[in-house]
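ARCHIVE CARD
Drawer: 12
Card no.: 0347
Subject: one protein chain, sequence and derived structure
Cross-reference: see card 0346
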Amino acid sequence: MNSIIQANNTEPEVIDFLQLITLICHLMTQYALHPCAAMATNINRHFQFLLNSSAAESLGEWQGTFQQLFIQWQDISARHMQHHLKTAKIEAQQATTH
């Protein structure tokens, strides 16, 4: 399958679970190499997509693990945003004092 969401005669949208997990793992690897807010947010969105997709019902006992990962990436994204806001505020204050 070439995309994560595939058209199918029996179900309008079928989530390719393995491709989605592979993509999330790739994104987390990229984040580990180059941490940034956009990547953290993207990872968080992919976990959210997974948990809200038709694949979520088949996760079984793994659903709790993916839910925890989603919450952790929400926190990472929020920390990035807080850092970005603090940095912008400091830069603005420095610009007004010069």
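Annotation on reverse: Residues 44 and 72 are 8 Å apart (CA to CA). The mean pLDDT is 83.
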